[in-house]
Design a protein that fits this description.
The protein is 13% helix and 8% strand. By secondary structure, the protein is mostly loops.
Length: 79
């Protein structure tokens, strides 16, 4: 229990992501420090994520606060 040094991928250095590439859409934290969830809205599921979230909690909070479920339906119709 001697050293408190963190591994490079767990850096707390604020310059580690100067462009905000890995910032959570909801809370702004660096998603690399969490169990991230990525959202891709393009036709190519292997493409670069459109949005990143720390975890499902941040994704759910974003969906709720943005009202993204208002006016949607969970029913499927063959037509």
């Amino acid at each position: 229990m001697g050293s408190s040094a963190e591994s490079p991928d767990m850096s707390t250095d604020s310059t580690a992501d100067p462009e905000g590439t890995y910032a959570c859409v909801h809370c702004g934290c660096d998603v690399r420090r969490h169990d991230p969830v990525s959202v891709t809205e393009s036709a190519d599921p292997a493409g670069e994520p459109d949005d990143r979230y720390c975890n499902y909690g941040c994704l759910a909070a974003h969906v709720e606060e943005a009202g993204l479920t208002t006016g949607t339906t969970c029913e499927w119709s063959p037509s």
